Amino acid sequence: MSFASDCKEELCKIENKRACCLKAECYGLLLFSKCFSLRDAQMICENSAVARRITEAAAVSAGVYAEMRAQLHRKNAGAYAIAIPGEDARRQMVTSFGHTGREISLRIRMENLLKDCCTAAFLRGVFLVCGTVTDPQKEYHLEFVTPYLHLAEDLVAVLQGVKAAQFSPSVARRKNSYIVYLKESGAIEDFLTLIGAVNGAMELMQIKMYKETYNNLNRVSNCETANLDKTFSAASRQIAAIALISDKVGLDELPEDLREAALLRLHNPEMSLREMSERLSISRSGVNHRLRRILEYAETLGSPEEEISAQHEKGKE
């Protein structure tokens, strides 16, 4: 099962103990389905638990019978078609929530969401019937799909009015539908918690923590690798310069402080400046200054890069 399906299965196990919450969830389920009309219409639902939730809520809260039929057509195999048979039943359904069925534009009637608990239940119903959430292993994205612009705008207003969280939803057009979506992981966690998908929210948080830890470790590893490459490159030039001095004039020609640093670098090519400073009992800047003087002296004798090339050629022989 997908992450979205797991969340919906969890939500379908929630029992609405208050009549107002049951009605609000039923309102969200029906209003955002394709059945909320006086016309004979049906919606296709791929989740059996959600399909049963719609039919049960319609019967208990709206007092109408919702017909659920398994789809055998190849395109919708495994899904369920839900419809409200009978014009009188459909009229009773829409009027029970304060609608007439003859509205020019379908809107959310806020009198059905008088309490905070009702808003959470309503949003749960909306998510069950037209919402989905992407697997957080891939990306953070939660969206609702509706064919009506005003309904999408009203949903944005409801989300922005939630007191328990701060949602900043966006609206986009996709073919003949309007998408209301959340992209921030924190907002998605808060939404899933609000509507009752606590396990889904916890799983998302755990995945987020794992990703952040992994990314931090990866950044540290990349930084350390870059530092090692930088250290190795610098050490190679320094060793080549020391070898050049040794071949041309001998290390005894160097002042004692430079000769000490040269021998330490020559015998410890992997050693960092910090480690060298501890061995020489001077500061890192002091070590760096001595090595820079060695390079400058070597340049008066020749090119350290030529020495590196010569060493490579000797190695091939």
TrEMBL record:
Domain Sporulation regulator WhiA C-terminal: 218-297
Domain WhiA LAGLIDADG-like: 120-213
Pfam families, A to Z: HTH_WhiA, LAGLIDADG_WhiA
Keywords: Cell cycle, Cell division, DNA-binding
Gene Ontology molecular function: DNA binding
Gene3D superfamilies in the cross-refs: Homing endonucleases, Winged helix-like DNA-binding domain superfamily/Winged helix DNA-binding domain
NCBIfam families per UniProt: DNA_bind_WhiA
Known function: Involved in cell division and chromosome segregation.
Family: Belongs to the WhiA family.
UniProt name for this protein: Probable cell division protein WhiA
Gene: whiA
